[in-house]
Design brief:
Helices cover 33% and strands 24% of the residues. By secondary structure, the chain is α/β, with parallel strands linked by helices.
């Protein structure tokens, strides 16, 4: 965890990589929106969807304690609803009720008397929990489960369609290692929430508070990015969705030829369309950050995998993943890494493109280490935002793409430092 210095301006950072003589370059653009998102002063609606299947025995007391503490953190203007599910679903709060101590105590008594048993009809739990929503109130659903959907509807596409047409954020807290993580994580992406693992009641409370922070202020919805003036392609993420207060947005892609570009970010805030503009310069030759190529490839594969999870596997999408993975030396569901003695590559006529790439990354990393810290802000001459980025209390947090990037860089380091002989 970390905290940014207060008073930092809203800004746009740009890092590029384009070898001399190459037609195509790679860019990473990071947006730090100015804090013009107003607080939500009216109440929020909270839906707790809780797994009480047989596999929750031994974990259920922890779940109940986490929910107990989480309910105690709700504001007086908030409402909540509690749905439990095993082979069937039940609304134990009787719909949305005010977050009073009396209502909280009544629901907790029902949870304390519950004995986990039977199978896991996850779809039934979500379907009941998402009924009767008020479109005029910000709504979040907190799903806590440890298992897989093994009763009733189990097809991933139907779960995603259930969430696609409701205006709420789904936050999934996963207990244990047996859960169907691809399904749970994809559902949270569709609803623009998050999924994370929890092991104790404090974890649950912390994640509920993190979810609450996403409903405390207005958010940028239906965010779209347009870059004019230079040719760009292969931009990821393909669909941005929402940006919450304090959240940064990272976009990666390819560009041809350097030059000045007009960057326009549009979004809806509380139903009102807003537009932010600036001009940035893409450099013609920039060789300091070769890691950007594989970071883009990793993000592009993740984007294609999301499509497959939602629309189903197709030969074209699978081939696209294979092509990117082979070009950039990445392991995927469809590609593997072959490890041999160093002399075997030459004997078999195998070109070690990945080895060359890693050596290049290592060389540029050493050059950067000897230089002063670089300021990558690209909109200094024409600021995109007129206000400062928010200074949030407590620790900072990573965006989804930042976390992917940091994990991938650690993977690159481990691979580059591996023993050469096996």
């Amino acid at each position: 965890y970390w905290r940014h210095q207060p008073g930092l301006p809203g800004a746009v950072d740009l890092v590029t990589y384009k070898q001399e003589g190459s037609n195509k370059g790679t860019f990473m653009m990071t947006f730090f929106p100015g804090d013009d998102l107003k607080p939500i002063n009216y109440g929020r609606d909270w839906i707790f969807v809780l797994d009480i299947s047989g596999s929750m025995q031994g974990k259920f007391a922890t779940l109940v304690e986490g929910v107990r503490q989480g309910l105690a953190k709700l504001n007086p203007e908030d409402r909540f609803r509690v749905v439990v599910f095993n082979h069937q679903a039940s609304d134990i709060s009787g719909g949305f009720v005010a977050a009073t101590q009396l209502n909280v105590d009544q629901v907790l008594r029902s949870l304390d008397a519950t004995q986990p048993a039977n199978g896991t009809n996850l779809y039934a739990g979500l379907d009941k929990g998402l009924g009767g929503l008020n479109p005029d109130r910000p709504t979040a659903a907190v799903l806590i489960t440890d298992g897989v959907a093994n009763v009733g509807i189990t097809e991933k596409k139907q779960f995603l369609e259930l969430l696609e047409y409701v205006d709420l954020r789904l936050f999934t807290l996963i207990m244990g290692n047996s859960a169907n993580r691809p399904l749970l994580e994809e559902m949270t992406k569709v609803s623009e929430g998050f999924a994370d693992s929890v092991s104790n009641s404090d974890d649950i409370v912390g994640k509920i508070m993190l979810a609450a922070s996403k409903l405390s202020h207005e958010a940028m919805r239906d965010v779209e990015l347009k870059i004019d003036g230079i040719r760009v392609s292969d931009v990821t993420p393909e669909s941005i969705g929402s940006v919450y207060r304090g959240q940064q947005l990272i976009v990666m892609g390819h560009y041809w030829k350097g030059g000045d570009a007009e960057v326009t970010l549009t979004a809806k805030v509380n139903g009102e369309k807003r537009q932010y503009q600036t001009r940035v310069r893409f450099t013609e030759n920039s060789e300091l950050h070769p890691e950007l190529e594989r970071l883009w490839a990793y993000a592009a594969i993740a984007n294609l995998q999301d499509k497959m999870d939602y629309l189903g596997e197709t030969a074209d999408t699978q081939q696209a993943i294979v092509d990117i993975a082979k070009e950039y030396g990445l392991v995927t569901n469809f590609t593997s890494m072959v490890v041999m003695r160093q002399e075997s590559f030459a004997a078999r006529g195998i070109e070690q493109r990945n080895h060359k790439r890693i050596e290049q990354e290592r060389a540029q990393r050493e050059i950067r280490r000897q230089q002063a810290v670089r300021d990558n802000r690209a909109d200094r001459q024409e600021p995109m935002y007129k206000t400062n980025r928010p200074s949030l209390g407590g620790g900072g947090s990573m965006s989804y793409w930042t976390m992917l990037g940091m994990l991938f860089l650690m993977m690159v380091k481990l691979w580059s430092d591996r023993p050469r002989q096996v």
